[in-house]
Amino acid sequence: MTGFSQPERRGLQRMQLNPGAPSSPSFDDGKTATHPDADLLTAFAERSLTAREKEQVLGHLAVCATCRDVVALAGSALVEPVPEPVRKRAIWEMPLFHWGAVAATTIVVVAAVSLGMHERRAPSTTAAIQSELPPAAVAEKDDKVAAAPAAPIENRAKQAIAAKGVPAESAPTPPVASPETTKHALHLQQEARFERPSGAVAKKEINVPAANGVVGGAVANSPSPATPPAQDAARDSVDHGTANSMMKTRAADIAQAPAAAPPAASSAQREAGAYNVRTNESLTVDMRTGAVTQTEQAAPNAAPQGAATRHKREPYSAKSIDQGAAPALAFARQWQLSKNGQLQHSSAQGAWNDVLPGQKFNRLAIVQDHVWAGGDNGVLYFSADNGQTWTTLPVRSGATVLTGNITALQFTDTQNGSLQTSTGETWRTQDGGQNWTRQ
Amino acid sequence: MGDLIYQTSKATKFDISQKQFESWALAIAQKYLPPDVSQSDAEDFLGNLRLEDLALARACAFGHERAWEQFMARFRELLYDAALGIAKESSQAKDLADSIYADLYGMTERDGQRVSKLSSYMGRGSLEGWLRTVIVQEFINRYRSRKRLVSLEEEEEGGSQFAAPEPAPAAASDSRVDAVIDQCLAALDSESRAILSAYYLDGRKLAEIGRMLGFHEATASRKLDRITKALRKSIQSGLVKIGMSKRQAEEALEMDVRDLAVDVRRNLAQEKGP
Question: What ipTM does this complex have?
Fold first, then answer.
């Protein structure tokens, strides 16, 4: 215990409630009002207290070793002690950050030129857009727990470039889009914060069925079976610089590329799961604002009036939308998660109505009229009729139970999906979520 | 609002009337909300309750068979797994879980009514999390009571009969220094004090502290460093204000060699404990 003097430590000890007295009251015997009850401690651990209550509990934890033990043990009461996910340091933590930034900028410029030349040679890049890796979660500056480890920038860039058909070696980092497309760049996926209520919540992502009912690019209920499944985007964590670069690249590509059939998904990329919302025209739905980017065409059930600010959109290209896009988008646009994780559905009149009030969710996945909503502590709700009825799906495999909060949720069709948790677990299902296996 | 709460809770499947459920919700709101709460805050509060879990728990407390079937299906293994995660030893875990089950089921009666622990679940957190907390509380209570009942044989084996006499206490601390330290600690926010207590008193690791308080280990490390430095600075400044020189203030906060020796001995003694 370095860095703290004895007088300071004695001060801390003086601050404590008397912990060792044999007559210390038990927790629920009604004899004491000093200890938070089990409900408050649970709500504290699950971050669902009000700010005032949280402050009160923290004030008590500062002086009560017993309650600190309770909170610590309750949080660690897992079947298998799950090691914290290995999280590589964010780029700005690395000592060579500045040198790296300079080098990366140089490489990005070179790669942009190379890619630009490549794109001009290969006009049908919609497939490349489809297969482009998603911008993974942007690591929070204050290092919230990440659900997936960050890969080196070079690997992520190489994957992104390879997905576009460019040899990875030729362009180690993603290119930079033009300034005008930057504004209209696609929504990047950001990891939901581990700590949900107290801070601003990052944008929540939703898997929107693609043109033919595909989530994240993989074909679900394709009207044309001959269409090969689109390439899923692999999920990863990126720093701001790379994420922005990828965002700009994608925006630039979308602006330029006409429609094309999506390429076959690589098993590795499908394995990683789609993260960005994708349709054939690289549509992304921002679940925080309800905005649907990259199209001007109004879906049959258009997003309600008064919805939060939408991103500006590129002019809609009729050639870039498959026949099945409109209905799939229609389902997607009916759902959103509010700022505090409330699931909401838009009515015909255009208002957003709370669904499953009292439940907080972190992630949403939609394939046609199948809706999955995942929240903290493994809570997973499912509807097969666009929200008319709901069931809870326990995520367990024998004696093994999902631990942690659901931080990512993807379904490629109505049967096959996967989810990731804040404790680094990955679970898969092949029957719509009725049964799961832990990877 | 009452209709919405009742519908969300799905209490009908446990034959709980709307009136009954609303009365429970009202009691919970009265317990946790201040008297002057606004209507919208009250509605938010009720909307954030785990209503389905609440209905299930209360139905189980009343002995509803279908509710118990659902409870067992959802939580039976979880209870044992959680107990194992806490107790780390299977027989102790089983004993712990069985004890909890008995409390939850309501093996005791009071005035002819079964008394189930589930009736004290308020729906503020998930039922699963609440069950874990209850298990931990029971485990801690058992461990504490067991510690007070150490047998003579165990004491002998532990060598306490032959333990060296406690060393002479360190020199009495300066009350002025203590007063300044107490003042500076009180000025810290609750989270900072909780971090300091968990780290310097409980000896918890940063990862544990992060998990407890909801942030990453690296964040815990940075916070701890920042808090410790700021506290030291404010204490030194406070000591200077009461008339100490800067040098005296620094010396007052330096670790006494005698204290260091005592601290090491105390730490070693703690490590020998169960």
Answer: 0.84
